[in-house]
TrEMBL record:
GO terms for molecular function: DNA binding; DNA-binding transcription factor activity. PANTHER family: CRP FAMILY TRANSCRIPTIONAL REGULATORY PROTEIN, CYCLIC AMP-BINDING REGULATORY PROTEIN. It comes from Clostridium formicaceticum. This is CRP-like protein Clp. It comes from the Bacteria.
Amino acid sequence: MKIKKYLQLLTCIDLFKSFTKEALLKLFCEENHQIKKYEKNSMIYLQNEVCNTVDVILRGEIVIQKIDTNGNILTLTSFQTGDIIGGNLLFCHNNVYPMTITSKTDCILLHMEKDFILELCQKNKAFLIAFLHCICDKTFILTNKLKAITMKTIKQRIIEFLTYEYYYQQSTKILLNMSKKELAERLGVQRPSLSRELNKMREDGLITYDAKSITIKNLNILELANE
């Protein structure tokens, strides 16, 4: 695949906003990057695999997951077209992926070599600033997610999810774009534990739910997430 096909997308990404399409075409050569396709549910990076590139998602969605020895999956976060991964690891002394990265959909990734990134940081101040912003943003996202998971009960995690979706969807009926299994992974709990808590919340008259939605019956629960 040729970089030329994705130049318009790259100029819309913060890292490359300071470059024209013509300038980008001159920057990229066969030695400093690769463009690869990944089928849905492919393992892009395994836990403890060395990070050698900064990657731009040119198409699709990926998820960052932690899989324990019992096979339980915790989905920390997801990234979509235009997002960048690997920047917060590439220049670490221990530059290995702490978690598994999987393609949630069919994906296309641009893998940029370390020396190429270093050269751009040295020669282009706007790129350097955008790269540092990217590193900080990703660290903030992952740190907050870990904090939320380790410090909150299952009920608080569910309510936190419902609160976000309530304001995003502007409705007490929260439509789910994921299965209950995927929701459990996103919240960092086991599927049976999620089902038990949802049942308890339904019995308490707080929610009702089916396979495709959760309806908030008592808006006062939105105040419980921070208890």
